[in-house]
Amino acid sequence: xxxxxxxxxxxxxxxxxxxxxxxxxxxxxxTGGTGGLxxxxxxxxxEIINKHMDGATARAEVTGASVENIRRVAADxxxxxxxxxxxxxxxxxxxxxxSDGALPMSAIAxxxxxxxxxxxxxxxxIKTLDDMAGKRISLGPPGSNSSVLCMRILQEKxxxxxxxxxxxxxxxxxxxxxxxxxxxxxxxAGAPVAALIDLDAKADMVMVPVxxxxxxxxxxxxxxxxxxxxxxxxxxxxxxxxxxxxxxATLFTKxxxxxxLIERITxxxxxxxxxxxAVHPAAKRILRETATNVPVALHAGAKAxxxxxx
Length: 310
Hints:
Layout: H1 2-23, E1 25-30, H2 37-52, E2 56-61, H3 66-74, E3 80-84, H4 85-93, E4 105-112, E5 115-121, E6 137-138, H5 145-157, E7 165-166, H6 170-179, E8 184-189, H7 194-202, E9 205-208, H8 212-221, E10 226-230, E11 242-246, E12 249-254, H9 259-270, H10 273-277, H11 300-308
Parallel strand pairs: 1-2, 1-3, 6-7, 6-8
Antiparallel strand pairs: 3-12, 4-12, 5-8, 5-9, 10-11
Helix pairs in contact: 5-8, 6-7, 9-11
């Protein structure tokens, strides 16, 4: 009898020892390329989750950004991810890059303005969108919303040429610019973004503005885009304000993702905003007050946390 009790006791202890590992939530976050803000802020969120959320380990995954993140979340390859508002909206409607079928996505939070920054170098002969006709242009990573939005801007202006389009990561794009292998690069991110800060330090960078007529036509077709202005001095070579297109960054997950898990993730992030704000200047725009300004319905878990923490 004593032996039996000892065996049972050891078994119970063993179960207690392994149960935390078995119960651990492994959280994968779909971000973007390493030169963009999605990755920088996503890595910051992973660190916060690892530090403050018991029984969970999080990892920021390098991806092709919005479109890839949505498809991988839908396939249960990622727990949650970053997306531009427009791409998230279109994924739920089965339009744009998702014309093959709508996907069941829900929002976790509005994050910060993400703007289309079209960069070139002094001497490339590009000052306006009209000058981009016939030029070699990196639209952004393949499968990214950068490539979608940049293409739409160029198409609205009538200067898009598939033969001259390339799909490079942000870091690859800036290197190609410096090396003379492309003439302009499109980067969709909060400003300033690391890839363009680095480019500006290496060469005389020029930002290409979106003119009023192109902006009006674009917003007329795609009302989820917004006019925005990058203030003068955001980059060292930028002497004047630059008119750009804003497509806000949004955090999202699959609609049927575990409600309790998403509520805990939402609470962990928004209860530790001081730490997240220290990751990058753009992260300071992530606020509880604006978190629910999302283009699609909130996930039930995120909504539960916001309702309990107005």
